[in-house]
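Lab meeting, action items carried over

1. Structure of the two-component assembly. Owner: GW. Status: complete.
Input record:
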Amino acid sequence: SQQGEEDPQALSIQEGENATMNCSYKTSINNLQWYRQNSGRGLVHLILIRSNEREKHSGRLRVTLDTSKKSSSLLITASRAADTASYFCAEDTGRRALTFGSGTRLQVQP
Amino acid sequence: DVKVTQSSRYLVKRTGEKVFLECVQDMDHENMFWYRQDPGLGLRLIYFSYDVKMKEKGDIPEGYSVSREKKERFSLILESASTNQTSMYLCASSLLRGQGGVRQYFGPGTRLTVT
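Predicted assembly:
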């Protein structure tokens, strides 16, 4: 299966700025999920957006989905040093397993 | 809270050794997964299991096998470890597909080095 692509691969911002990460995928999806991974650790689920939704919020996270362009974006507002991590999108296409992208490494400078 | 545990955080093995990676989840999830993670390649699915004794190959099953004798435990086996299997191995679990989509819960990972 083909993996989605995150863009950019790496992002460095100052604390308090917003961080935007993009994900493009290739097949039809039931939903798209975003996960976070702290260095050397497992992934943690952040948010899920269904294919019939266009935008979803959770705290400082905002996710958008454009199924016509097969793309999604994750916005982290007012970033903190603790947001430093890798962020992955994952496609749920109806298979049992998700298909993960290659991730965006976010560095938030204090 | 769902807990997924992996038997080792770090493991060093020699080429040709048989290696067992164990994963246990405590939430009665039907699905369990093994991924490997390499820099620049993201997560790649090795195998998954949707029930006891049931398994399906993922995208990169070559050189690996799995075992699921109990619902809570999913083992990844490297029959004869090779240096190109040096990687981070991540286990995950999830409920069977349900309404609204299914999220996966991950263990902390095992960093395996084969020398």
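2. GW to write a short summary for the group page. Key points so far: Residues 3 and 26 of chain B are 6 Å apart (CA to CA). Chain B touches chain A at residues 4, 31, 33, 35, 40-45, 48, 50, 56, 58-59, 88, 90, 92, 97, 100-109, 111 (CB under 8 Å).
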